[in-house]
Amino acid sequence: MSTIKVKDKVFEPYLTAAEIDKAIHRLGASLCEDYQDKRPLFIAILNGSFMFAADLFKNLPIEAEISFIKLASYKGTKSTGQVVTAIGLDIDIHNRHVVIIEDIVDTGKTLNAFLPQLRHQHPASLELVALLNKPEATEYTIPIKYLGFSIPDKFVVGYGLDYDGLGRNLADIYRLKEEQ
Ligand code: 5GP
After folding, report:
1. Is 162 noted as a catalytic residue in this protein?
2. What is the best residue among 75, 102, 106, 175 to mutate for testing ligand 1's pocket, by most ligand atoms within 8 Å of CB?
3. Is residue 177 part of a domain?
4. Which atom of ligand 1 lies nearest, measured to the CA of 137?
5. CA 76 – ligand 1 centroid, Å
6. Between residues 130 and 81, which one has the greater pLDDT?
7. Does 176 fall in a domain?
8. pLDDT band at 82 (very low <50, low <70, confident <90, very high)
9. Which ligand 1 atom is at minimum distance from the Cα of 47?
10. Active-site residue among 106, 153, 164, 172?
């Protein structure tokens, strides 16, 4: 694989579709084991996780539901900090086993604001599956029970992740090339 250009930046190959597929098989197997007979509700966070969510869900041959939401994020007051509103969360999660599907956890800011809102609705359990995590970028520690890859703090595109709206359709994941 060679470098590619997305909009005005050059990206180099990082994770191949085959490596992603392997990680998804592993995650699917763990989730099946843990959620068999629990009829889990997966909540995928759009837009970035759409491809990951689709592939992961195909690897879950158990009774399970999936729903898609968008998070609108804005800066609240000093006391409220980051405010996040969920758009499209129309399923009652009370007493349900909920698993959030996220593409990448970077600083953790978004989920740090969103997860307490879900906990407030008293799900039976609440866990997170993320394809990528950047431990070096962590500002808010979010426990990720099911993780695909731990990656360095470099901007990535592809497999659902975008750079300014572009690059989501790449089957592999690329990372920003240094010194441009
Ligand atoms: P956090 O709130 O954890 O800082 O940010 C999470 C969101 O930021 C992700 O869901 C994703 O949309 C975006 N994000 C963080 N790092 C990257 C990255 O390297 N590439 C892309 N395309 N999006 C990222």
Report:
1. no
2. 106
3. no
4. 4
5. 20
6. 130
7. no
8. confident
9. 12
10. 106
Task: For 14-69, write each residue's pLDDT tens digit.
Answer: 999 999 999 999 999 999 999 999 999 999 999 999 999 999 999 999 999 999 99
Number of domains making up the chain = 1
As for ligand 1, residues whose beta carbon falls within 6 Å of it are 48, 102-110, 155-157, 161-162
Instruction: Say if 180 falls within a structural domain.
Output: no
Burial class (CB in 10 A: 0-12, 13-18, 19+), 130: buried
Where residue 73 falls among pLDDT bands split at 50, 70, 90?
confident
CATH number at residue 145: 3.40.50.2020
Atom of ligand 1 nearest to the CA of 103: 10
Decide if 172 is inside a domain: no
Length of the chain: 180
CA distance 30 to 62: 12
3-state secondary structure 70-131: EEEEEECCCCCCEEEEEECCCCCCCCCEEEEEEEEECCCHHHHHHHHHHHCCCCCEEEEEEE
* Mean pLDDT estimate for the chain: 95
- pTM attached to this predicted model: 0.96
Closest by CA position to 156, among listed 103, 108, 95, 119 = 103
CA 64 to chain centre: 18
